[in-house]
Amino acid sequence: MVERTFELPDLGEGIAEGELVSWLVAAGDTVEEDQVIAEVETDKALVEIPSPYDGSVTRLHHDEGEIVPVDAVIATFEVEGDEEAATERDSSSSSADAEGSPGETAADAADTDAAAAGTPADAAADASPGESPVPSGRVFASPSTRALARELGVDIGAVEGSGPGGRVAGADVRAHAQGAGTPAGEEPAAGAATASAAAAETAATTTADSEAVAAVGNGTAEAVEQRESGVGAAAAERDRTLAMPATRQLAADLGVDLNAVPASEEREGEPFVTPDDVRAFAAEGSDGASGVASGVAGATTTEEAKSATEPVTTADERSAAETPGEGAAAGDLADRPGERVPYRGVRRTIGEQMAESKYTAPHVSHHDEFDATELVELQEELAAVAETEGVKLTYLPFVVKAITTALAEFPYLNASLDESAGEIVLHDEYNVGIAVATDAGLMVPVVKNADEKGLKQLAEEIRDLAERARNRQIKPEEMQGGTFTITNIGVIGGEFSSPIINHPEAAIFAMGPIKKRPWVVDDEVVARNTMRFSMSVDHRLVDGADAARFSNRVKELLAEPSRLLLE
Amino acid sequence: MVMGDIATATDLLVIGAGPGGYVAAIRGAQLGLDTTLVEKDAYGGACLNRGCIPSKAFIHGADVAHEAGNAEEMGIHADPAIDMLQMQEWKSDVVDQLTSGVEKLCKANGVSLLEGTAAFEDEHTARIAHGGEGQGMETVEFEHAVIATGSRPIQIPGFDFADDPVLSSSQLLQMESVPDRLVVVGAGYIGMELSTMLTKLGTEVTVVEMLDDVLPAYEADVKRIVRKRAEELGIDFHFGEGATGWEETADGVLVSTETEAGDVSQYEGDAVLVAVGRQPVTDTMELDAIGLEPNDAGFIETDDRARTDVENVFAVGDVAGEPMLAHKASAEGIVAAEVAAGEPAALDQQAIPAAVFTDPEIATVGLTEDDAADAGFDPVVGEMPLRASGRALSMGESDGFVRIVADEASEIVLGGQIVGPNASEIVAEVALAVEMSATLEDVAGTVHTHPTLAEAVMEAAENAQGQAIHTLNR
Ligand SMILES: Cc1cc2nc3c(=O)[nH]c(=O)nc-3n(C[C@H](O)[C@H](O)[C@H](O)COP(=O)(O)OP(=O)(O)OC[C@H]3O[C@@H](n4cnc5c(N)ncnc54)[C@H](O)[C@@H]3O)c2cc1C
Q: Which of helix, strand or coil describes residue B415?
C-alpha cells in the first residue's frame, strides 16, 4: 500500500480556483478509478472530480464550502503498491484529532475497545457529504452546543472544550469554525495584565495572527501545505494531553498551549503535564531564548494559517479589506436579525460579475418595439416543419440570427475593451450567450459562431445548452468566450428591462414578449403582434446613436424576417 | 400505477402513527413539508392504544387499590372492591382522549391523514390499501418516507395468541375481569409491570422465566429490590424454566415448562400471558420493493441521521432498533423529519433514559459504573439510599436509592440509576445532567426543593464528591 496525494485538476481555461461544493466520499471509503469523488463549482458550472486511483480515501484536505485553488492537494488515497502499510494512522488521527481532555482520552480508549461501536474513522465515513459527523466517542457538550456544531458543519469531536472538565461550549464551537483555538472571550488577554510571560505569549499570538491574515490573499495553497506537512514538529508534539482540570485552567490563564508543554510525568503510558510544567514553560516562553517560545508562535501561525483557508474568515477579511468605506453599513447589518444565507457559489459569482460590469462599464439603455406580424407567421410556418423533425423552433433563433447579421454591420457592438492594452478588440467571431434562469441562479451558455448556424441548428443547440445549464451538467468552457448576450425577459413577464452587460462584452439585448398591442397602421389603431425589446451598451465603446442604429437594423430584420433566411 | 388509482404527491410520507410516526409527521409539517401520515389501525400506535398508556393507567388503578387496602400502619382500614369493567372504561377514556388529541394535533399542523396500509412500490411511490374489501387503493408519490411501523409481541412455539387462553400484553389490557390466577411467561419489563399490577388487583400470579433473574438488562442491586418486593406481594417466580406448551383444563390452563436439564413442571392458571419481548414490524410495507431488508435482528438499519440505505427513506422507533421505547421513537421521528427538511439534525443524544413501572419503579439513564469503566472512564459513584430521604419515609416507601455515576477526572455526570417511588420522574433531572455534560458540582450546587425525592439526586452528587450531608461518604 502506498499513499498518493491528489491535486485539484485543471477546471477549465483560465480558472484558478473552485468552491468545493460537496464531497461524495468520506475518509475510509473505497473508491474506483474515475468514480466521482467531489463536486467543485467554478465560474459558473459544477464540475465533477473523478478519482485518479483505485484504492481508499485516507484523508480529505478541505471542507465543503472552501474555495480551493487548482493544484492544491484535496485528497490522499491509499492505493495498492509495494510499500509497507502506512495505513490507518492518518484517517483515524485526522477525524479524531480531539485535543486532550480527560473525557476524550477515555472516549478514545472506548473506541479502541469497543470494535462494535466503530472507530471515529468509521463515523466519518458514515456521514454523507455536507454533514458534520456524529462522533462515536463521547463528547462533553450540551444538546444546543451539539446542534450548533452541526449547523456550522463542525466535527465536534475535534473541538477542544474550555468549560469545566473540558466541556465544549458554544463559543468553542464558533471559535473552531473560524479556525481559532480558543473562544474570543477566553483569549489570554487577562493573563497579559498579570504575568509578563503571558504578555509575551499574547504578543506572539498577535503577530502570528496578522501574518496569517496578510497571507490570505495569495497564500492559501501554501498555507494548506504548511498545515499538512509539519504541524507542530517544533512544539505541538501531542494532539492531546493528560492533565488535571486545574492544570488546564492554569494553562488557559497563562495563555499556554497545553499540547506544547513538555511533560515531566507519565500516566498510563501517556505524557502527563503538571502545573509546574506549565509554569516553567510559560516562564521560558517569556525570555524567548529557549526556542520553545518560537515553537509556540510557529504552531500558532500554522493554526492561524489554517483559519485562512476557512471560507468564513477569508470572506470576512476580504470584505473588511476591500470595502473600507462601507464599514459602518456592514456594522449595522451585522446586528440585523433575519435569516442568514451564505453568499457563495453561483450566487456570489453572479453578484461579483454584475458588480464588476456595472461599476466598470457605463451602461446606456435603449428600448424599442416593432411589428412582429410577419415574424409570428414565419415562426408558425417554420416551427410546424421543424416539429416534424423533432425540433422545437421558438422566436429566439430568429433573434439570434437578426443580431449576428446586425453585428456584422456594427462591429463595435461585438467588441471588448482591453483596458490594460488601451485597445478595443473587435471580435472576429460571433459567439452569442443566452441567459438562462436556473435554480442555482443566472447562467449564460454560449452558442459559438452563431452567425454560421441555421435556425434549426440554433434551436437545437440553445435547447441543449439551456437544459444542461439547468441541471448543471454544463461545462465551464461552454459558458466562456461570448461576444454578445441575449436575454429573454418575455418568458417570465415584463415589457422592458435595463439589462446588465455580460462584462467584458459591449452590449446585451433583452427581448420582451410578443403579444397583441395597439399599433398604428395607416393612421388607424389596430391590434398587432409586436415585440418590445431593450438593450444596454457599454458607452465607452458605443454611443447612443450607434446603439439606436443597431437596434433599427435588428428591428428591420425581425419585422421582415424572410430576409433572415438569406443569412 | 394501477388504472383508476388516485395519485397524490407529498413531500413526506410517514407510515405508522405511533410515537415515532406522528411526531415525525407533525415536525415535518411544522417545517413546511407537505406531509401525509398513514395509519392502518389507530392513531397513537402501540404506545397509546396497547402499551405505555393503558398499562400505566391500570398500574395506577392497581396502586390506588393496593395502597388503600394496605395502609393499616397509617391507620387506614379499607378493603377496596375492584370493578374491572369500570376501570376498563376509565382507561379507554384516557386512551381516547390521547388518541383523538394526536389526530387533532396532526390536523391542526396541516398533516394529511390517510387510513390504510402503506406498501412501497418503488423509492418514490407507495400504495395505500384502505381498510376492508372494496375500499379502494390510492397511490402516493413521495420525496421522503419515514417508516415507523413499530413492533408486535413475539409469539413462542406452542403459544398462539389466536387461542383464547393465550394472551399477548395487548389482549391482557382488554380484560373485562380480574383473573383469579395467571401464568406469566417472561420476567422482562412488560411481564414484570403487568404481573405486579395484576397481583395488586388480587390475581395469583406465577411467573416463568428462562433466565435466572428478573429484568436481565439491569444491575443486580437494582433488580434485587424489585424482585424482593414482587415476592413480598405474592408473585411466585420460577427461574431457569422455559415454557414449552399448554393444555386446557376444566377451569383454565396448565402451562408446562422445562429446565435446561430437562426437568418438567406444570403451573395452573385461568390464562397464560406471554410477554417475552417484541419484534419489529417489517412485513407490512413491502420493503423489498425499495431494495431494503431487515438485518439479522429483524430491524431496519439506519445511520446517525435516521436514514436507511435508501437515501430518501428513513426508519424510526421500534422498527429501527433497540431500545424499543416510545420516547426514543419520538426523538428519532423528529430527527428524520428535520433531516428530510434539510435541517442539520442528527441522532447524537448521549443517552436514552428508560423506566420500568414496577413496585418500586426503576429508571436509568446513561452509563452504569461498569459501563463507564468499560468505556475507559475512571468512574466515581455517589449514592443516596431512600432510607435517608424524609420524603420517601413520609410516603412509607423507603426501599431504593439514587445513584450517580461520573467521570472522576472531569466530574462530568455520565449516568444514573434510580430505584424507588417515582423513579421515572426523578430520572429526568439526571438525564438533563448527562445530556448537558453537567458536573457533579453543577448538580450538587443546584438547590433542590425539600422535602422531595429529587433531593436524593443532589445528595448522590454530593456523595460522589465525598461531601454528602445526610449519608456517609464512601
Ligand atoms: C404493554 C406495553 C407497555 C409499554 N410501556 C412503555 C413505557 O412505559 N414506556 C415506553 O417508552 N415504551 C413503552 N412501550 C413500548 C412502546 O409502546 C413502543 O416503544 C412505541 O410504541 C414505539 O413506537 P413506534 O412509533 O415505533 O411504533 P408503534 O407505536 O408500534 O406504532 C406503529 C404503528 O404503525 C402502524 N403500521 C404498521 N405497519 C403499517 C403499514 N404498512 N401501514 C400503515 N400503518 C402501519 C401500526 O398499526 C402502528 O399503529 C410499551 C409497550 C407495551 C406493549
A: strand
